[in-house]
Each structure stands twice: as C-alpha cells, then as structure tokens.
Amino acid sequence: MSKPPLVPFATPGIGHALHIWQNPLKFFSAAARTAPLSRIKIGWKDACLVSNHELLYQILVPDAKKYDKGIQYERARAMLGNGVLLAEGDFHFRQRRLMQPMFNKPSVNDYINAMHTYSTAMVDSWADRDVVELYPEFYRLATQVVIDTLFSTKMSHQDVELVRRQMPIVIAGIEKRGALPPKLFDTIPTRENRAFYAAISDLRRLGDRLVDERLGMSRGSRSHTDLMDVLTETDDAVTRRDNDRAQILNEFLTFLTAGSETTPSAIAWSCYLLGRHPEIQEQVRDEVAGFDSGSSDVTAILKLPLLQAVVKEALRLYPPVWALGRRTIQPTVLGGYALPTGTQVFYSVYSVQRDRDVYDAPNEFRPQRWIDDAKKYPRTAFLPFGAGIRNCIGEHFAWIEISIAIVNILQRYELSLQPGQTVPPAAMGALVPGNLPMRLRRLVSR
Ligand code: HEM
Predict the structure, then answer these.
(1) Which domain holds residue 174?
(2) Does 9 fall in a domain?
(3) Pocket residue to mutate for ligand 1, from 102, 392, 393, most atoms within 8 A of Cβ
(4) What cofactors are annotated for this protein (predicted)?
(5) In what order do the strands lie in the sheet with 131-133?
C-alpha cells in the first residue's frame, strides 16, 4: 500500500507547519479537497489528515483502541496534567466511570437552577445597552456555570476575568504547538512562549486556590452532591489513591477548560445565525414564548424542535471543537492505507460537517433540515461532541446550558447585526466569532 496523497505546498524543512500556524481553518479546509485521507508534513515528519466522516467515525468508534490522543493533547499536559480529557487506558476508564453519573440526566437536573440564575442575571445586565459584545458575556456565563455546578464554588468577578484573559492564550498556544515540530518552538524564549507559560501558571494557581476553598466547605453549604464529592468520597481504594490532591487539581482544570472554551462559542454562533435570519429568530421566539427555563423539568427544552434544530445547525456549521487528532499505537489500516505505529492523524470536524457529498447547501444555515430531513444525514457526519469511548462527557450538560441561555435571550430581546456585518470564524483553539457586537432591542413582555 502506498502513502496517502501529499497536500500541496509543503515547505522544505517545516512542511505545512507555517500554513497551519497562520490559518489552520483555511489550511484544513483547502487540504480536505486533496483526498478523504491525505498526508501533511509537520517539519520532516508525515502526518495524516482525515476529511471524510466515515473514516473519522472509524477512528473514534470501532478502531478507538488502536489510537491514543496524540500530539495536540500532549501539549495540553502542562495545563491539564492527567485529567480525564488526557488520561489513557484503564486510568481513563476508571475516572470516566467515576464521573459519568454527574453528567447523567438526574444530576444535570440539579444544575438547572444555577444555569438559569446566571443566564437570567446576564440578560438582565443588558437592559440599558443597545449593543452588546456577546462572546465575552457567554464566556463569563459558561465559566461561572461549570464551576458552580460541578464544584459548588461561586467565582469572583476577578477570577472569572483571569480565566477569560488567560485561558484563550493557553488554548491557542496548545493548538499551535500541536502543529509544530516537537520541542523546536518551546526552546525559543519568544514573548508568545513567555505569555503561554505565564497563563498556565496563573490558571493553575487559581485552580489550586479554588480547590482549597472548595475542600474547606462544609457539606451543608452545598445544594447537591457535586463532582468534588465524587472524586474525594469514593470507597474504592484504587480510585481513592488515583484521586490525590494533584489529580483533583488536574480534574478541576480539565472541567474549567472544557466547560469555558466550548459552550460560549455554541451560544454565540447560534445568536449570530439568528441575528442574520430574523424570520427564523421570530419563529424560535414564538416557540419558546412562555417556556419556564428555571423549572425543574427543563429537559422539556430539548423537545422544542426549532430551538434544537437551530443549535444543531450552529454546531454543524461552527463546531466549537473544530479540529482534533489521534495517534496510532499499533499498525493500523485506514482508508486502504497502512499507518505505522506512531502516525499522527489530524481531523477537521469543520470540514466533515460541511461535506457537500453529505449535506445539500452545506455552507447555508438551514435548521429546518434537522426537522424535515434528519434521517437523511448519517450520524457519522455530525460529530461536534466526538463519538465512542472518548466522546464529550458534558454533552447533555451543554445542550441544556446552551438552550437555557438562548431561551432567556429570545424571551427578552430581538437580536440583530449591523447592516452588512459578517463574522468570520477564528480558530483560536475553539472556533470562536472574533468580534460579535449584537444590537439588542428590548421586547415588551408577550
Ligand atoms: C458545545 C459544547 C461542547 C462541545 C462542542 C464539546 C466537545 C467535546 C469533544 C469533541 C470532546 C471529545 C474530544 C476527543 O475526542 O478527543 C469532548 C470531550 C470532553 N468534554 Fe466536551 N464539549 C462541550 C461541552 C463540555 C462541557 C460543558 C463539559 C463539562 C461540563 C465538557 C467536558 C468534557 C470532558 C471532560 C471531555 C473528555 C471526556 C473523555 O475523554 O472521557 N464538555 N468535548
């Protein structure tokens, strides 16, 4: 078996690293046109790029055990240690099994009050403003929600701002380092490198303090069993040994990162698309009129068809976790090519979810497709939360959080963009709208 076709424009010595560094989204989207499985060069080393949904699904589900998480994730260890996102093998399995109940429906019901309260406070704070820069608002919301619900800790304004300032530096740094020849970049004392390591130190220090504060709380001060209880109170000796103080900090930082870097993007893109499509916005507003997003049975929110279709279509067009990777840990065959052990495989969920062989009008916002034609689309072609044993543990949490926020917004405001305003996606780790000033018109209650 020969090698997969090489994506054009590799530069001798650095390969495609510069293209990826400069504009990863553009590079991955252009490279997707080379072949469903193509080859790129990171420095002098070959890596693969998967742009086809069936091959991606094969990696994530049936062949999952043939891969580890690979180079991008290795770069994240300085921040997240061996938290559940990066853990491998039996250790991952034990941590995931321990935590899973906190993300099942009954537990997520315990988080609804906090999700509703923070998102109501957010929309109330916009009352006197005509234009709001939305993304930072959603970032604060998601950060407070994830730490309050899972660790019963109310973050101060300063702490939230520190996360908002430093976390994107860390995430973008990890992403870029994943596409560079190992170690080369880290050894040069650039301003960017110093900022990256300073941001990691700040966030780990913050996490350390918040973990101490949480561990010092009395049981009676919490409204529900939280993730920290689960990590610290297990009867199982092996799991207790696994979750020493250092590992608890790793898990805290893992959830801080995973919770704050993803849902803001999904809420923001949903609002952007509704701002661009006022007629759909009006239909969703009619659907959510009178819905009580603070009620304890808020799972009914997941049955509001148009709202869910809008969020799904936003996640298809702008998947927050838009590109990821894996690495083979044994000789593996993929797409008819033999991949030796240690082959790095990148994949672009963004390209897969805009594949014109799967989706008609793939670049258009058509939420109705998920109502009229949902069965037409293979589930392997919609993977914003990943799939298989490493899928997103927070998927249900995220759907509820995103839906509550959008309901609260649409019940109070009409959203519109400035005339002619378009917002190109920026791949800053997560796929985020760079600037998203949105005009708000306060609605009289209906
Ligand atoms: C729209 C929101 C979200 C998106 C698009 C998203 C996406 C993803 C994806 C694609 C993965 C799999 C990564 C891989 O295969 O390598 C993942 C894993 C994970 N997510 Fe999310 N996520 C979201 C929200 C959340 C939230 C709110 C939390 C926590 C409350 C969370 C916690 C995690 C954790 C801990 C993992 C690692 C799971 C494991 O490896 O067992 N995510 N997420």
Answers:
(1) 17-442
(2) no
(3) 392
(4) heme
(5) 131-133, 437-442, 413-416
